Amino acid sequence: MTVITFTGRTKRPGTAAPPPAAPAAVTGSFGSPSGRTGTFVGSYRLERCLSRFGQLAAAGVFTGELTDADGRGIGIGARRTTVAVQVVSTATGLLVQIGPLDVNLLGFLVGVDELSVDVRGTSCKDAVREALEVSDQPPVAPGDPALTDNLPRVRPTRRPGGGRSGAPSDGQGGGAVAAVRPGPLMAATAGERHELLQERRLLQDILALIRRCHACPPVPLLDAVLSGTSAVRPALPTQPYQCSP
Question: What pTM value is reported for the model?
Answer without folding.
Answer: 0.49
